[in-house]
Amino acid sequence: MNSRIVVVYDKGAVHPSEAVAGLAGVAIPIFAVADTEEARRALPVLRHMGETIELVREPRVNARRLAARRPDGIVTFSEKAVPTTAELAAELGLAYHSPATALALTNKALQRERLREAGVDDTRSILIRSVADYERAMAALGTQAVLKPARGGGSRDTHPVDPATPSELTGRLVRHLLNHHSQAGLVLEELLVGQSPPGIGDYVSVESAAVAGSVRHLAITGKFPLIPPFREVGQFWPARLDPHQRAAVLDLVTRALKALAFDTGIAHTEVKLTPKGPRIIEVNGRLGGHLNELASRCGAPNLVRLAARIALGETRLPDPIKTRKIVWQYNNPAPMAASRLLEVGDWNALQTIPGITGYKPYFRVGDLPGAGVMTNPLDLVCGEADSVEHMLHQIDRMQDALVYRFAVDGREHHVAARFLPGMGIDRQRELT
Prior knowledge:
By secondary structure, the chain is an alpha+beta fold. It has helices at 16-23, 37-41, 43-49, 59-67, 82-92, 99-106, 108-117, 131-141, 167-180, 243-259, 291-297, 303-311, 388-401, 427-430, and strands spanning 4-9, 28-33, 51-54, 73-76, 125-128, 145-149, 159-161, 186-190, 203-211, 214-223, 234-237, 265-274, 277-284, 326-330, 340-344, 356-361, 379-385, 403-408, 411-416. It contains 14 helices and 19 strands.
């Protein structure tokens, strides 16, 4: 193993240990660590696992330092790091998204524009840089909509808005969001309304691999219903779709990737299942979160290793992922209210539920999970089932078995997992 691969690191879909395990036997990693607080916190771990370079704000300086290591490929598993990785790849002459494609993958306003121009998806969206922009855009849409950062992920700062909402409240919300996202601005887009069976989310994601311009869809990932406003709580393989839905979803994603000139790497595309057919939510140019764990439980190839092989010049398209059982993951959401975690009940009780295969906490006792509307999981529960109905029964039992103790506003709360979504935020306090 003589190949060397740059792994541009920031908080994202893959933990450093998972990256090192996936690269074993394929390439020696060189961790290029982003100049962000979250990435710097991982530096001690990254230094222990391999060679590291701390990136600075000058791309050509970074490229010169990396070129001296003579890398053979470059990859990232972080949404935030996609544009930086594209800049470095262009400077180093390595295969990756072009800077233009990277921008379209990470800027929601530009992505919507590209998809409309290509006739792929006509969802209406408008770039917002002021309260006046918002008021004009809402008048033009005239319907329920979603307001979110033009760049971002994990449903961070994503809010449903309505033409009937008092302008004073929406004005405060827009100013609050622009204070945190002034560079790229916000996007106001029409709310896509989906349909799905009980207990199943009205959207899916498609995991795809592109090699030299050819695309192969690896899997369609089923989702659980979003928790308001737009927080994700889990996923499973295979998605519950009939043959017609499956064909329509895959055709839409194929056309979306072509419109964005996505010709190398791994894509994670979210699709809404509406009564009129599938619609694009967003296209992401990196591996989706926790998918490698799902792959490990159904005998599929390691997806980190696959991403690395593509970055190093793999010419053969991978086979679609097949599974004979349902493999699932569920994230219990942290309260939206500012809180401190005081205790997690006896999670060993999960071992008494047949089919549950693992539990991983993300916060320790005493931690402050944070507040807000973003997807912010307390933990990860994994399981396997014989049917969708069996899976939903397992999750129902899990939500009764797991009990947490939080301190919120000086008061203690004992909360079973199923009631966590009710621990909301004080909207007036959030906007002050």
